[in-house]
Write a structure and sequence with these properties.
The complex is a heterodimer of chains A (284) and B (560). Chain A is α/β, with parallel strands linked by helices. Chain A has a single domain, classed as Rossmann fold (3-Layer(aba) Sandwich). Chain A has nine helices and eight strands. Chain A has helices spanning 19-33, 69-79, 91-97, 99-108, 153-159, 173-185, 207-213, 226-234, 273-281; strands at 41-45, 60-63, 84-90, 113-118, 164-169, 190-195, 214-216, 240-247. In chain A, helix 6 (173-185) links the parallel strand 5 (164-169) and strand 6 (190-195). Chain A starts with 18 loop residues before the first helix and ends with a helix. With 560 residues, chain B is of the alpha/beta class. Chain B has three domains: 5-187, 3-Layer(aba) Sandwich (Pyruvate-ferredoxin Oxidoreductase, domain 3); 191-364, Thiamin diphosphate (ThDP)-binding fold, Pyr/PP domains (Rossmann fold, 3-Layer(aba) Sandwich), CATH 3.40.50; 453-559, Rossmann fold, CATH 3.40.50.920. Helices cover 37% and strands 21% of the residues of chain B. Chain B contains 19 helices and 23 strands. Chain B is globular, with a radius of gyration of 26 Å. Chain B starts with a strand and ends with a helix. The chains are: A alpha/beta (284), B alpha/beta (560). Chains A and B meet through strand 2, helix 2, helix 4 and helix 9 of A and strand 9, helix 7, helix 9, helix 10 and helix 11 of B.
């Protein structure tokens, strides 16, 4: 019986009031509800405030380079499919530095769960614009406001018919925990873009700003209907939908394309030296 | 009358099937018991350009390409213009009867009469094989093997070959000097450098390989692809080199022996992750097929200028091992060694090949592949007690390594400076202890350095120093000088980092003159020798025109 305490309590370096606390709590709740013990989890992150999460939860973890968490997680997942791989990092890490890997991961459909902390700003480096900052958003580094158009990660993921695309809000912990639990259960790539305030640097998209706009998708939204999912994914402004935007169970997980993985973890498979000798003689 | 050696150059445009002919010829020669050194020279284009496939043939072992040509086979007119200059005064040019070449020592082949244009390259193979005195039956067997799945194509090719042999036997003007036959030829393999690297990594037990295509590095992966399914290896083409190496590090973290293969430019993109492998103490085998830079440089040519790139790659300080094969056998054994060092010392290890050795086919004696153990994996580590710390400080610097998910112990990998438990710390004492722990691993590596190979006269007048693929040319140049009466020796480094000065400084001191031979413009290895030993190499012979060293090139430089 897995209990939430199994995932531990740590001293954390996040700012008081940061959305990260709630997201971490939701993740622990989801893992507990899914009855996945810490040693069956691989928690992978990049760099940023969100990327510190693995240090604050008991599980196997790999905290690698900025932007590269999806790459490391993909490699790890291919070696041992017995572990649940959770990738957790921020909007800068996944959508900016790791943008190419984000797109490639959507294409591969690796069976992992991607949790992106999206506060529309960079926290660790003290307040620069992020790829999801709204147009005109001013910072100390962009005093005249952001001049590029914002990246819409969920719309991109829905466009590519990613198997599981959701948006969560750190102010709705139980709702978010439910989304994470569903995401973990999904076979193939599941991604949740999680809106959260940055109390230190984002004075526009505050807790109240999100609270006022976020509304939960209800029964009338059919996440298997791609066109209406895309409409919901594009909805941003006075009202922002949270919940499962799109689901598609038709796509085969990446891992299934490699028959060798059916024989168990790669690394415990013997090197077949007799076959190797046969191969050698093909060069005669 | 027969002869023990022939140097053949086949020339043509990309897309003419030059490599197919060259490969078949080389294989026929190896099966007939000859030694070969193949040099492939090609432009960075899919069609057109001027490419050559050169085969140096010898009844005894040879180690390097040679310049003067005995037989020039022109599949296009450009070959006559470009390569005529290398042909010996008594050399033979095979050209097309349809061309007006005006050459004297020229055999004109009536390609159009002998076959459909589709099989022109088979006709060229036939004439070349006839001139050399190769067996028709052996060539037919090769074609049957090559077109196993297309018997009709095999038959048509064989017919073209037979017509060609018939036509040749009726030509009174044909040269009589065939190759001296090798009686009871030893069964050897024909393999190029990257084929041997691929077999080496398979023998080491690679389980995961990720890459982004780049010439010449990606041919390692291409050769590996021939048997990944049989050997249970996962290969993934990543979206870029950064993804490739981070994927491989992720795979390695989970316990799979993992590698990347690239070239200088691609490796430059991977550098940050080399540092990650260093601090997270994750094994990673990195294969760099060198080509001339900077930036795009000469994409399909050869150079040895990425030594410093590999040696200093990645920010911060952490140990590494770097190998550079000088022979095809080295390619195989050092590819294994690269994995061994990566796994044993839990960090990055490198193999530096280059375009020349990557593409250079040779006849080799088969490896004892069945008796070679794959690399030792972390499951042999036993943890006592219930506390496990991934980065436990040890005397050797190597921490016992468990793998995620295999026990209830949690396994942590971290890119920050970290505690023994693997969590972020900025404590100055822990920081220092961790840096020291990681660097201590180099002491272990130093105990298993492959010593440089010394050959030739003691207390020589000339000591030629080489590393990597330059070995063969240096060794043959030295043999030539010895035969002329100059006391000459060679010192060759197959491992270029770490270095142990005690293994070789006395050799450098014992020579009147030490001359380094490197395929780069700044003498990177000579600089490294000086940094590590204080020994100032007297003279440097450097080549950086994108072409491989030959013994003649070295001898000309020496007498200049």
């Amino acid at each position: 019986m897995v209990k939430i305490e199994d995932f531990g309590e740590f001293e954390m370096s996040w700012c008081p009031g940061c959305g990260n606390f709630s997201i971490l709590k939701a993740l622990k709740q989801a893992l507990t509800a899914s009855q996945i013990p810490p040693h069956k989890v691989l928690h992978v992150s990049g760099i940023g405030q969100a990327a510190k999460a693995p240090h604050y939860m008991r599980a196997n973890m790999f905290n690698g380079l900025h932007g590269r968490s999806l790459s490391s997680a993909t490699g790890a997942r291919m070696v041992n499919t017995n572990l649940h791989v959770i990738v957790e990092s921020g909007d800068g890490c996944i959508y900016a530095e790791g943008g190419n890997h984000f797109l490639a991961t959507l294409r591969r459909n690796v069976d992992l769960t991607l949790l992106v902390h999206n506060n529309q700003i960079y926290g660790l480096t003290k307040g620069q614009a992020s790829p999801t900052s709204d147009e005109g958003f001013a910072t100390k580094f962009q005093p005249d406001g952001v001049t590029a158009y914002p990246f819409n990660p969920v719309a991109v993921a829905v466009t590519m018919k990613t198997g599981f695309v959701a948006r969560g809000f750190s102010g709705e912990i139980d709702h978010l925990a439910g989304l994470i639990q569903e995401a973990i259960r999904h076979r193939g790539l599941s991604m949740i873009d999680i809106l959260q305030p940055c109390v230190s640097f984002n004075k526009v998209n505050t807790f109240a700003w999100y609270k006022q706009r976020c509304y939960k998708l209800e029964q009338d939204h059919d996440p298997t209907d791609w066109e209406s999912a895309l409409k919901k994914a594009l909805e941003w402004g006075d009202r922002i939908p949270i919940g499962i935007l799109y689901r598609n169970k038709q796509k085969a997980p990446f891992e299934e394309r490699f028959p060798v993985l059916r024989k168990g973890p790669l690394r415990s498979q013997e090197v077949d030296r007799r076959t190797l000798k046969e191969i050698l003689w093909r060069y005669a | 009358m027969t002869r023990g050696t022939y140097n053949i150059v086949l020339g043509g445009e990309a897309g003419q099937g030059l490599v197919t002919v060259g490969h078949a010829l080389a294989k026929a020669l190896v099966r007939s018991g000859y030694r070969i050194v193949v040099t492939q020279s090609y432009y960075s284009r899919i069609r057109g350009g001027h490419n050559t496939f050169a085969v140096r043939i010898h009844e005894h072992e040879v180690q390097a390409p040679t310049e003067s040509v005995d037989l020039l086979v022109a599949l296009d007119r450009e070959t006559i213009v470009e390569d005529r200059i290398g042909l010996k005064s008594d050399g033979i040019l095979l050209s097309d009867a349809a061309w007006d070449s005006g050459e004297t020592s020229c055999l004109k082949i009536p390609y159009k009469e002998l076959s459909h244009p589709r099989y022109s390259n088979t006709v060229a193979l036939g004439v070349t094989a006839y001139v050399l005195g190769l067996d028709l039956g052996l060539l037919c067997n090769l074609l049957d093997e090559q077109f196993k799945k297309k018997p009709q194509v095999a038959d048509e090719n064989k017919e073209a070959l037979k017509n060609t042999f018939d036509w040749c036997s009726g030509q009174s003007s044909f040269p009589h000097q065939k190759l001296s036959p090798v009686s009871n030829p030893v069964k050897r393999l024909m393999m190029n450098g990257h084929e041997a690297v691929a077999l080496g990594v398979a023998s080491a037990g690679v389980k995961f390989c990720s890459f982004y295509p780049m010439t010449p590095g990606s041919s390692i992966v291409m050769y590996l692809m021939d048997y990944v399914k049989e050997m249970g290896i996962v290969v993934e083409q990543a979206e870029d080199e950064i993804a490739a190496i981070n994927m491989a590090i992720g795979a390695s973290f989970m316990g799979a022996p993992a590698m990347v293969a690239t070239s200088g430019g691609g490796f430059a993109l991977m550098e940050e992750a080399v540092s990650l492998a260093g601090v997270s103490e994750t094994p990673i085998a990195i294969f760099i097929g060198q080509r001339p830079g900077p930036a795009t440089g000469l994409p399909t040519r050869t150079e040895q200028a990425d030594l410093n790139l590999a040696l200093y790659s990645g920010h911060g300080e952490f140990p590494r091992a770097i190998f550079a094969p000088g022979t095809i056998e080295d390619c195989f054994h050092l590819a294994r060694k690269t994995f061994e060092m990566a796994e044993k010392y839990q960090g990055p290890a490198f193999l530096l090949t280059d375009q020349f050795i990557a593409d250079s086919y040779r006849a080799i004696d088969p490896f004892e592949i069945e008796s070679l153990e794959p690399v030792a994996l972390p499951h042999k580590v036993e943890i006592t007690g219930d506390k496990y710390e991934r980065y436990a400080i040890t005397e050797s610097g190597v921490s016992p390594r468990l793998l995620p998910g295999e026990t209830e112990h949690l396994v942590v990998g971290d890119s920050h400076e970290h505690t023994e438990a693997g969590h972020i710390t900025e404590d100055p004492q822990i920081r220092k202890a961790m840096v020291d722990k990681r660097l201590r691993k180099e002491q272990g590596m130093r105990k298993e350095i492959i010593p440089p190979e010394i050959e030739g006269d003691g207390n020589p007048d000339l000591l030629l120093l080489s590393w990597g693929s330059t070995k063969g040319a240096a060794s043959e140049a030295a043999a030539f000088l010895r035969a002329k009466g100059t006391r000459t020796a060679t010192i060759h480094f197959a491992q270029v980092w770490p270095l142990d000065p005690e293994q070789f400084t006395h050799h450098l001191d014992s020579a009147k003159q030490v001359i380094s031979i490197e395929g780069n413009a700044t003498g990177q290895f000579a600089q490294l020798i000086r940094r590590e030993t204080g020994f100032h190499i007297h003279r440097q012979i450097l080549r950086y025109d994108g072409r491989p060293f030959t013994p003649e090139w070295i001898l000309r430089e020496l007498s200049a």
